[in-house]
Amino acid sequence: MSQSNNTAPLIGILQLAYSGELAAAYAYRGHWKSVSDTEERQRIQEIETEEWHHRQLVGEMLASLNAAPDKMRERRATIIGRTLGFLCHVSGWLAPMYGAGRLESRNIREYETAARFARDAGHDEFVDCLLTMAEVEWEHENYFRSRVLSHRLGKLLSIWPKPPAREMIRKSFAGDALRPVSGRPNSLPRGDAVEVLPDAVVISQHAE
Asked: Where are the alpha helices (DSSP H) in 35-150?
């Protein structure tokens, strides 16, 4: 597949990530304000700041591609994020932690996929930044997983699959570069879902 043909999937996944970061940041704002432990408040507030930074970086990538955010996704992300931020105050401690961890596990894959799309579209200048964001999302997932498992009920829950080790993000990407181009993804997976799980509230602006 030509580089030009891969630009559309790259723009599509960047638009998803851009709006997804908006929803996540608003949700985390409500999340850190809902917890009483000082260290948890500080860490979740840091995560919110990192999500805003990711949104800025993705926005710059879109601008360099002469692409704009999807206005409908932006409106939906604002509503979802603010709603989930509010629900953190009434849903208890465990559900937001669980939902955040599950969301972050998807964020890792999203940025890994975006890095592959960027490479295939000839935008190698995006790759390191996208992989770095995947690594930051890995740290987020690891934190929320640890918090869920620290709860007496957390060990009884069906936890989302554990991501590979952090260093595998770049190793996997490097290994994928050696495969034939035909074996790489050349389009976005179908779906742009907002998922509300029965055992936790979780946002997903990701393809299923």
From this structure: 38-64, 71-87, 94-120, 127-150
165-169's contacts with Cβ under 8 Å and 24+ in sequence apart are: 166/135, 166/138, 166/139, 166/142, 169/108, 169/112, 169/131, 169/134, 169/135, 169/138
Tens of pLDDT, residues 30-78 = 999 999 999 999 999 999 999 999 999 999 999 999 999 999 999 999 9
Domains observed in the chain: 4-201 (1.20.1260.10)
Report whether 104 contacts 111 (CB < 8 A): no
* pLDDT tens-digit series, residues 161-197: 999 999 999 999 998 765 544 444 444 544 444 343 3
Determine the average pLDDT of the residues in 66-94.
Answer: 96
pLDDT given at position 181: 46
Half-sphere exposure of 22 (CA within 13 A, CB side): 19
CA distance to 135, 142, 154, per residue, from 170 (Å): 9, 17, 30
Q: For tokens 């596990």, what's the residue?
A: 105
Say which residue the tokens 């949104």 belong to. 55
And the tokens for 107? 């964020």
